[in-house]
Amino acid sequence: MPQKKIPSIWPIEAHTKAKHQILEEYLKAWFPIIGRWANRIVYLDGFAGPGEYKEGEDGSPIIAIKTAIEHTMLKPTTEITFGFIEKDKERSDNLREILKERFEIPKNINIQVENSEFEDTLSKTLNGLEEKGAKLAPTFAFLDPFGYSDFPMELIKRLLSYEKCEVLITFMTGFVNRFLDPSHEEAITKLYGTNEFLEAKKIENTEKRIDYLLKLYENKLKENGGVKYVRSFEMVGKDNNVVYHLIFGTKHWKGLEVMKKVMLKVDSRGMYSFSDRMGFNQTFFVNIREGNEWMPDAAQLIFKEFKRQSVTVNEIQKFVITDTPYLFKKEILKFLEKTDNPKIISVSKRKNKTLSYPDGCTITFSKE
Ligand SMILES: C[S@@+](CC[C@H](N)C(=O)[O-])C[C@H]1O[C@@H](n2cnc3c(N)ncnc32)[C@H](O)[C@@H]1O
C-alpha cells in the first residue's frame, strides 16, 4: 500500500487523543471487572508504536500500563501480561526505553515487547496454545495499524475463538474505500476473509459505500470471530472525511454497556463520532449525557419492542444497550408511564405507588 514515510515518533492528532481517551476509560473499567474473578489477564497491543508522540504525549502502551498500575481496585495477586508487538526496531527500542525509565513494574505485571510482525507473532502464540490444548486468559486486544493489511480475518477469528477475548480495532475505512482497485484486492480479501467487499464498488455515494464497508467488516467479525456485540466509533479528519472507525467487539452485553458509556463520554451527542475539525468542543444537538431530548426516541424504541408483553427490567436494559444507540436509565420507563396515555400498565415488586422499577421487577406494556 503506498504510504508516506512516517518518522519513528510523530506528532499526535486530535482523533488519536480521542482514541486514547476511549482506550483509557474502557481499561479503567475492564481491568478491575476482569481482575475480580480472573487470576490472569492479557493485554495485547498488536501495533504498539514507540510509546510516545512528538511532544511527549503517551502512546497506547503507556496508557494501558499506567491504567493498570494506578488502579487501586485491582487485586495485587492478579497477574497481568502485557504483550506489545511492534515491527519497527527504532520504535520498539524506544518503547522499551520509556518503559524502563518511567515505571517500576510491580511483581504481578509481566511486560513483553516484541520487535516483530503482529500476524507472525500472534499466529505462533496461538499455535503454541492449540498444541498444548491450553486456553487463553481473558484478553483485551488493541489492534491499531496504520493501514488495513497485516491483521487478516483468519487470525482475528482464531483469537476471538477464545471465550473471554475482546477486540478494539482501528479499521481504516477511508483507506479501504480509496483502494478498491484490483491491485489491492488480495490484501482487502485477507482483511475481510471474503471478497464480498467488491460489491461496494457498485455504490456511488461515498457515505453509503463507507457504511457498507464498515457494516460488512462488523458482520464478518460477528460471523467469523463469534463476537456477539459490535459498536463502532467514527473518526473524522480535518477535511471532514472519515479516516477510520474504532470497532469494538465483545461477547458480553455488559462489556458493550461499558464501551457505550465510554464512547458517549468522548462524543456526548450520541453520534459515536469524533471530528478533528471540531475537536473536543464539538457542537452538540443532542447531548445524551446532560439533556433528556433523546429520551422520547429511546422510549419509543422500547415500546415498539415490548408492547403487549411482560418483560423483566433486565431484559429492557439489555435491549437498550444492544439494539439502540442509547444507554439505559430508569427515567426512560418513567417517561413511558407518566404520560396521559401510559404505555406501562403494571410493575411487579413495587412497594408503594411511586414510579419505581425495582431490580428484577417485571414490567407489563400496554397494547397501543
Ligand atoms: C498507528 S501506529 C500505533 C500507535 C499506537 N497504538 C498508539 O496509539 O500510541 C501503528 C504502528 O504499527 C507498526 N506496525 C506496522 N505494521 C506492523 C506489523 N505488521 N506488525 C507490528 N507492528 C506493525 C508501525 O511501525 C507503527 O508504529
Commentary on this structure:
The protein has 2 domains: 14-275, Rossmann fold; 295-365. The protein is 40% helix and 17% strand. The protein has helices at residues 14-35, 60-70, 89-102, 118-132, 153-160, 173-178, 185-192, 206-225, 253-266, 295-306, 313-323, 330-337; strands at 40-45, 79-85, 109-114, 139-143, 165-171, 229-236, 242-250, 273-275, 310-312, 344-347, 362-365. The chain has an 8-stranded mixed β-sheet, with helices on both faces. A 3-stranded antiparallel β-sheet has the order 9-11-10. α1 runs parallel beside α2, α1 packs antiparallel against α9 (253-266) and α10 packs across α12 (330-337). It is globular, with a radius of gyration of 22 Å. The model is unreliable at 281-286 (pLDDT under 50). The site of S-adenosylmethionine has 16 residues, from loops.
Helix content: 40-55%
Task: Encode the helix/strand succession as letters.
Answer: HEHEHEHEHEHHHEEHEHEHHEE
The largest beta-sheet arranges its strands as: 3-2-1-4-5-7-6-8
Give the averaged pLDDT, no decimals: 91
Class by SSE composition: alpha/beta
Instruction: Write down how many β-strands occur, each being a DSSP E stretch of 2 or more residues.
Output: 11
Please state roughly what percent of the residues sit in beta strands, choosing from under 5%, 5-15%, 15-25%, 25-35%, 35-45% or over 45%. 15-25%
Tell me what the CATH architecture of the largest domain is: 3-Layer(aba) Sandwich
Radius of gyration: 22 Å
Distance between the termini: 56 Å
The CATH topology of the largest domain:
Rossmann fold
Tally of discrete structural domains: 2
Low-confidence stretches: 281-286
CATH class of the largest domain: Alpha Beta
Question: Overall 3D geometry?
Answer: globular
Number of helices: 12
Which compounds are bound in this model? S-adenosylmethionine
The major pleated sheet works out as:
8 strands, mixed
